[in-house]
Structure formats: C-alpha cells, structure tokens
Amino acid sequence: MALYDQTIENHSEFLESLRHRFLDDDRKTALQKFAIKGFPTKKDEEYKYTNIKEITEKDYNFFPKESHNITKEQLDELHLGEENFDWIVFVNGQLHKELSNISIENAEFLSFNYALNDENHKDVFDKYFNTIASKDLAFTNLNQAYCKYGFFLKVPKNVIIEKPIHVFYLSQNQEENTFYNTRNLLIVEEGAKVEIIESHHNFDESFVFTNSVTEIFTYQNAKADWHKIQNDSDTSYLVDHTFAKQERDSLTTVNTFTFGGKIIRNNLDFIHNGENINSFMNGITIIGKDQLVDHHTAVHHNTPNCQSYQNYKGIFKDKSHGVFNGKVFVNKIAQKTNAYQQNNNVLLSEGATIDTKPQLEIFADDVKCSHGCTVGQLNKDALFYLRARGISKKEAQALLLYAFANDAMQNIDIEPLKVKIEQLLAEKLEVTMEF
C-alpha cells in the first residue's frame, strides 16, 4: 500500500492513540486538505526537478516501536565534543531524559507531545502553533495531521541561553520502514538568545522517512540560530519545512549542512514583520552516488530597512543531483531593503547535475538586491598553481574545494560545531577525490 493510502487509513487509529483532543478537528481538516491535493509530483512547479516517487511508493509503519538499545558509545560518536552543551535525545520519537543532558534554566522546555497535553500551554499553542506554517502544502498538512514528536521551547524576555542545545532524532530497532512527523516550536521573546543544533540519525537498514515542520518566532532585539547537520544514512529520507517570523531589530540564522541521506528536501521561509531585521541562510552540500538534495528558500521582505543574506555552496559527484530555488520577495513598502542571494556549485563527475534558479520579485524602488549562481568545475589555473608547488593533485583538489565551501561557515560562532563541519568537509572531500 503506497504512503498516500496509508495516511488516510491510519489516521483514525492515530487519533485514538492521542490524548490531546483539542487538535482533533484541526488534524482532520489538515488530512482532508492533503487528501484533495495528494503528494506533489514533477508536474508541480515547486517539485519540477525533485522526484519523490521513491519515497511515496514505499510502505511505512506509522507507530514506531519504542524499545531501543542505543548505547552511550553510539551517542558519543554523534556528539561534537560539546561537553559544555545541552543535548536532547529523541529515540523512536520519544524523549529520553536518561540519554539527555538538560540544564536549561529560566525557559520552558517540553517534548512536543507533552506540551500538547498540558492545559497550561493551550493558550500558547492557540497563539503560535501552525500560524506561520503554510496551510497549502501537502507535507505541512500531513505533518499537522500526524505530528506528535519533537519539542517546544519558549525563551522568556531577556533570557540568554548560554549553552547551545543539540537535538538528536534517532531511529533504531525498527523492523519496517518508519514514518516520523516531527514538529518543533521555538519562541524567543524580546531580548532573548538561543542556539539550536538539529541532527537526524537512522541506525537501521530499513528506511526512515521524516516529515519535519519547525516554526520559529524571534521577537524584538532577540537572536535565534538554528543549525541543521544532515549526515544520515543512505536509508533515510527527509522533507523539512522551517518557517521563521521575525519582529523588529531581530536576527535569525538557519544554517544547513548536508552530507548524507538518500533524498533531502529543505524548505525555508523567512517572514519579516518589523524594521531593521537581519536574516541569514547558509548552506553547504557535498553529496555523491545517487543522492538528491533540494534547497528551496524564500524571504518575504514586508517591512523597510531590513537585510537578508543567502549563501549556498554545492559539490556534486557521481550521479548525485542538486536543486536550488531561492526566492526574495520585496513588498512595495519595504524600501531600503538589502537582499543578497548566491548559489555556487562544482560538478566533479559527468553524471552529476544541478538545477539552480535564484529569483527576485521586487515591488519597491529604493532597494539593493542581488542574486546569482554559478555551475562549473575546479579552476584549472588554480589547480596548476598548487601542483607546481609540490602539492599532489588529490590534495590540491581537496584544498580548492575546501576553500570553495569555507565561506558558507563564516557566521558559525559555536566553535565545536565549526570544527565538526570542517571535519565532515575534510572526510567528504577525501572520498570525493577518489575518482
């Protein structure tokens, strides 16, 4: 039975398994919307270059087994050397405090499922939940219909969360293909600050499909950074939608570092709701074999005197396929907008491909907006220069590729994270050179 049929058939059983009844009607409405549209195909403009048929034609278990045997050694291998971090570990959808290190003070942290069941948070969910996530997309509607796993974090006014928080989503001990609908809600109130690192890991040979939706609310003079490390197995699929709404004088960053996973689709929407907002989006993609990674970004400049910066780098080998579609919308009242968008790509094999489409829609007349993309191979002159100084071809290629990707890491201010990304770059580039 294909995934579409399973979503309809399993929903009643799913609702019966939940206790948070106040969302039942919303879930049913979302499923109805999904049923009308179905999954996007290559006939849909937004999925023109991304075929998800491989994902949607598989059968999945909607109720993952909770039992696991994750060891401390396995977790240690996933860590970034972050002894001074907090970390939150979800295994098979469930929060495991015994595997986590949570010292968050002066802030509200709950698992998403627990928050839904807590009457004290009903008003918060009424105010924020699903208010900026698109209600017209198949995967966001499917997520609303089935969301259960994930976390809720509210950082109160002027509270600085000093330690970065690494959130692990692990799947293990699943005999069947498994379907997770992860939901995160982050609220950063006026003057507050927080940094999140998110990673997904499948320990089984069976396939995992994660349909994730994250809503971020950054208030006046607040700062929220969200770093995604996507280095999962070849038996993992990920469709991620992240929506970030910013108020005046705020700063929000979403960095996406993609190295592993069979098919990954990242959708990122920034919504400006005040002046002097800064939005940063950076991405590094290094893939091979027959992997597919698709980045779709959109920045909605609705107010004057705001800035957005997008810088995505891609390195593709074998028969891998990359997609980048970046959009910047500038409202007619959004004067003095400064928007930068760049996508640069290197193809290392004849079978590797990239479809890139940066877009600007500008309705204001006093703005500074630029966009561009490049697709090519390594610079032969630079390669010759390095080899003429005694550097081997393999090392010269790796150095040039490292330098090519490096500027997309410049705004990482978490040193262990920066070191980890540099290590992953070095590892992937070493593999990349073996052709």
UniProtKB/TrEMBL annotation:
A Pfam family per the record:
SufBD_N
Signal sequence extent: none
List, for all copies, the residue spans of the domain called SUF system FeS cluster assembly SufBD N-terminal: 4-167
Query: InterPro entries from the entry?
Result: Fe-S_cluster_assembly_SufBD, SUF_FeS_clus_asmbl_SufBD_core, SUF_FeS_clus_asmbl_SufBD_sf, SUF_FeS_clus_asmbl_SufD, SufBD_N
Instruction: Give every SUF system FeS cluster assembly SufBD core domain span.
Output: 175-404
Family (UniProt): Belongs to the iron-sulfur cluster assembly SufBD family.
Q: What is this protein called?
A: Fe-S cluster assembly protein SufD
Give the species this sequence originates from.
Chryseobacterium luquanense
